[in-house]
Amino acid sequence: MSGGGKHAARPDDVPAGRPATEPAESSEPTESTGQPTVGASDREQQTMLANSAVMAAGTIVSRMSGFVRSALLAAALGAALHADVFTIANTVPNMLYILLAGGVFNAVLVPQLIRAMTDDADGGEAYTNRIITLAALFLGAVTVALVVFAPQLMSLYLSDQWHEPDRAEQLQSVVDLARYCLPQVFFYGMFVLVGQILNARGRFGPMMWAPIANNVISVAVLVVYLVGFGPARGNELTGPFTNGQELLLGLGSTVGIAAQLAILVPYLRRAGFTFRPRFDFRGTGLGHTLRLGLWTVLFVVVNQIAYTVVVRLASGGTVDGGDGTGYTIYSSTFLIVMVPHSIITVSLATAILPRLSRYAAAGDDRSLAEAMATNLRTALAVVVPFAALLPLVADDMANVIWGHGAAAEQYERYAPTLSLFGIGLVMFTVHYLVLRAFYALELTRTVFYVQCVVATVNVVAAVLLVRSGDAAATAPALVLAYATSYAVGAALSYAVLRRRLGGLHTGRLLRYLARLVVATAVAVAVAGVVALLLGRLADDPDWVVAALRGCAVAGVGGVVFLVMARATRLREVMIVIETITRRGSRTSGG
User: Residue 293 has what pLDDT?
Assistant: First the structure.
């Protein structure tokens, strides 16, 4: 299954050049001082974190604006069938982009662009022009076909109940919305491709900040919707949309994605690249890229088949009305859980992918293994405590984000799904980072085989869990299936990479995880006591009180974790904090 979204591989600050051939120095804590020595490994990690800070900052702002969008969407449409009609129609274009081109763009083109820039006499300009031309032609033709065959397409993503006579209006509404939204496939694809080109040339900020424009437009569209049509009430929570509502929501969503692309285009010239269409595709090295992309395409196909099953199952959770949970709740809670992944894991993976590619090209497995192990520990230092603390604040978070307007009486439906997603986040993080090494090594066939296992487990678990529960348990059941599949995927991908590289510092990782679990357990215990005490003050608080209570619980848990991290010598946590603090002081100092 897809990680839920738009994972674009982005390289670090050295777009071209050869990898180091010397392994990084060890930096274990010394016995005499108990403090970490600052060797090459720490310096490399600090440099990588600093290089990804601009990307992380853009992601934070983007995610915050995304929260506003999610809150307004719930306030306008609620969390039932009415909301699922739009959410599914607006999600399918992204799924199709990932299916049709995302795997090649994200995972294959970065190493190939860097190789072209390094090896080609023109710095890869001709190669890049051919890639852009071919992608635009392909995406344009596919988008037209998708719009034409929208009814047949949407039937793949909707459960059989949607085709019953009493749901005919909702079915027509989701098809109409899809036709407005499907042109996003073209804009998604070109946005990611242009962003990859910029990243390969050392321009990381634009791709991270451009999605904010999409969120701003989406927020504006939803504000106009609320002013013009008001929040859904009564029967509207399970009904279709009017023509005017479909036009505003569907077209507005597509304009937001198009704006992302428009913002990136001027930066190409600033990065020293001028696009000139080229149609001489034969004998230019594109065959190598496409051969590498074949296995990645198959990987994505398997991934999206599993995700299609998930969407179909989720669409059945709300189609009969009542208190069921469906795709809107599943996708909205996923947005929250992906925050640490987007800020930390994606930034680390973005920064490390070109470095891994250079290590792989030089045959330097020791440095590649060291870099992977370091980034795994750094990412887990953030996602593990986040996932553990999430259930303590899930109710309050749901109240603050979604407890307004049309969803004011439905926000509690979000909490169980939100709580369970933390488990899946940890498993997905490990799997996601390990796959970056496979892509750097150009082992795309291995990635495909691993993902076949993940997808199979996801589908089987999702079907069994959803069928064994009621409609209210649909979204939580899908989250458990997600966590199960990526637990299997993380274990399998790690084992395969470890054998391929001759080791991944597993002993050190296990010792680190033991200390991390201890620090996290203490933090959760203290925060749990605080949550219990504050919970007695207000059983059903308004969103302001919920925000204060949630912040208090999370704040206490975070402080205790940092104290425990220092006590248990979790160097990676300290490096993250020191990097953020150092960059903050530089910013404030001008």
Answer: 67
Q: How far apart are the first and last CA of the chain?
A: 44
All residues at 6 or more sequence positions from 88 whose CB lies less than 8 Å from its CB, including other chains: 154, 157, 158, 174, 311, 315, 327
Neighbour tally for 548: CB within 10 Å: 15
Cβ atoms of 240 and 173 closer than 8 Å: yes
Q: What percent of the chain has pLDDT over 70?
A: 84
Distance, CA of 84 to CA of 86 (rounded, Å): 5
User: For 57-112, how does the pLDDT look when each residue is reduced to its tens digit (9 = 90+)?
Assistant: 666 777 788 889 999 999 999 999 999 999 999 999 999 988 877 766 765 666 67
For the chain, state the CA radius of gyration. Answer: 24
Which one, of 429, 411, 400, 436, lies nearest residue 545 by Cα? 400
d(Cα 486, Cα 68) in Å, to the nearest integer? 29
Decide: 221 and 248 in contact? Cβ < 8 Å. Answer: yes
The pLDDT tens digits of the residues spanning 169-227 come to 999 999 999 999 999 999 999 998 898 888 878 787 788 788 888 989 999 999 999 99
Classify residue 280 by its DSSP letter: -
Contact 246, 173 (CB under 8 A): yes
The encoded tokens of residue 473 equal 């348990």
Q: Which of 195, 179, 114 is nearest to 147 (CA)?
A: 179
Alpha-carbon distance of 346 to 535, in angstroms, equals 35
Confidence of residue 32 (pLDDT cuts 50, 70, 90): very low
Q: What would the two tokens of residue 316 be?
A: 């059945």
Choose among 115, 447, 103, 137: nearest CA to 285.
115
Closest CA to 131 of 298, 295, 300, 273: 273
Nearest Cα residue to 128 out of 145, 147, 115: 115
Smallest Cα–Cα separation from 366: which of 12, 26, 17?
26
| Residue closest to 464 by CA, chosen among 475, 477, 450 | 477
| CA neighbor of 499 nearest in space, from 436, 455, 437, 433 | 437
Rounded Cα distance between 200 and 188, Å, is 18
What whole-number distance in Å separates Cα of residue 14 and Cα of residue 16? Answer: 6
The 10s digit of each residue's pLDDT in 376-417 is: 998 899 899 999 999 999 999 999 999 999 999 999 999 999
φ/ψ of 321, rounded to 5, equals 75, -155
Which tokens is 266 given? Answer: 């001027």
Ranking 186-195, 297-306, 432-441 by mean pLDDT, the lowest is 297-306
